[in-house]
């Protein structure tokens, strides 16, 4: 079931008493001044139809919202604008980031936000509208600014978290002997998911900053440009993060290969050292009758001495070569 996270009427930038129902909110949006802010969490198809009927939303836009799982976009339906943004959240207990979706309908007197994951950005948008009445008085497009600003701030926290994980993995690669391919792969996959959420939103900011074909108030464009520059910087950081993970993966492979070579060198060295006494004892183990050393008093001690000297010489040579 859908949950109404927030509902309010903004008049001259000031928040007023919330309408009591969708019908009341729709009538207030059609007949009153200012604009109605409505935030919903996880609405079903029937509930979306109720919202569309109450606010007279374009049917095509409602169908888009009903479909869900869309790429970030900004679509103009004449009297209404439909905006899709991607949200990201990073839980320390989970190996991968959670990517959600925010849909938003913007009309002349309403701003309807629909969350399909965490409701955090909805609360963040309300705080921004309440803290900046000079922006809220610019109309429903101010709600789009507040929502996008909250989404980008959440994305930045995810980037910071992935950066911390990168530092930890980098230390593990160069200070430990365990292969770090799996954590590097998981972080790289998270970076790709984050890039798919952030990069397509740059086109949305380009459109909003230009004010065409979707109209945005002139006074709001500096705020949109500020959030847009934040999003572009964030997109660059995600690309840098992916590049750093690629380099770290190559370094990890090199470290693993080096450790394998060291092990092979050590095994080969000890095998060569063990081969000399093995050959000598093998010769004496053939039990030939006519062997001069068998009747010689110093034959046995000499064989032992030759084996010890050969082992020590080989070990010294391998250590000098860095194999042991």
Low-confidence stretches: none
Largest sheet: 7 strands, mixed
CATH topology of the largest domain: Beta Polymerase, domain 2
User: Total domains, how many?
Assistant: 2
Shape: rod-shaped
CATH top-level class of the largest domain: Alpha Beta
Helix content: 55-70%
Strand order of the largest sheet: 2-1-3-7-6-5-4
Task: Please provide a written account of the structure.
- The protein is built from ten helices and seven strands.
- It has 324 residues and is α+β, with helices and mostly antiparallel strands.
- The mean pLDDT is 84.
- The protein has a seven-stranded mixed sheet, with helices on both faces.
- Helix 1 packs parallel to helix 2 and helix 9 packs antiparallel against helix 10.
- The two termini are 68 Å apart.
- Strand 5 (81-89) and strand 6 form a beta hairpin.
- The chain has two domains: 3-255, Beta Polymerase, domain 2 (2-Layer Sandwich); 256-320, Methane Monooxygenase Hydroxylase, Chain G, domain 1 (Up-down Bundle).
Keywords, separated by commas or semicolons:
Beta Polymerase, domain 2, 7-stranded mixed beta sheet, 7 strands, 10 helices, 324 residues, Methane Monooxygenase Hydroxylase, Chain G, domain 1, 2 domains, alpha+beta
């Amino acid at each position: 079931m859908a949950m109404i996270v927030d509902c309010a009427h903004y008049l001259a930038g000031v928040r007023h008493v919330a309408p009591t129902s969708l019908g009341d909110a729709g009538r207030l949006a059609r007949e009153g001044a200012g604009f109605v802010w409505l935030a919903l969490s996880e609405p079903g198809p029937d509930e979306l139809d109720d919202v569309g009927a109450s606010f007279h939303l374009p049917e095509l836009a409602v169908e888009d919202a009903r479909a869900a799982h869309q790429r970030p976009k900004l679509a103009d339906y004449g009297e209404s604008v439909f905006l899709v943004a991607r949200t990201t959240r990073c839980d320390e207990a989970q190996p991968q980031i959670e990517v959600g979706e925010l849909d938003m309908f913007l009309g002349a007197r309403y701003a309807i936000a629909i969350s399909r994951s965490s409701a955090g950005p909805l609360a963040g948008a309300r705080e921004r509208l309440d803290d900046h009445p000079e922006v809220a008085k610019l109309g429903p497009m101010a709600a789009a600014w507040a929502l996008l600003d909250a989404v980008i701030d959440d994305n930045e926290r995810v980037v910071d978290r992935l950066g911390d994980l990168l530092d930890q993995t980098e230390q593990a690669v160069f200070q430990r002997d365990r292969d770090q391919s799996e954590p590097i792969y998981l972080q790289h996959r998270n970076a790709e998911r984050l890039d798919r959420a952030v990069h397509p939103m740059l086109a949305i900011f380009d459109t909003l900053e230009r004010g065409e074909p979707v109209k945005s108030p002139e006074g709001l464009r500096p705020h949109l440009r500020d959030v847009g520059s934040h999003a572009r910087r964030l997109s660059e950081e995600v690309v840098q993060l992916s590049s750093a993970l690629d380099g770290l993966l190559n370094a990890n492979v090199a470290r693993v290969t080096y450790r394998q070579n060291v092990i092979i060198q050590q095994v080969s060295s000890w095998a060569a050292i063990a081969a000399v006494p093995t050959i000598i004892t093998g010769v004496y183990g053939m039990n030939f009758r006519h062997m001069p050393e068998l009747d010689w008093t110093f034959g046995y001690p000499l064989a032992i001495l030759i084996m010890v000297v050969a082992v020590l010489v080989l070990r010294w040579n391998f250590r000098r070569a860095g194999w042991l």
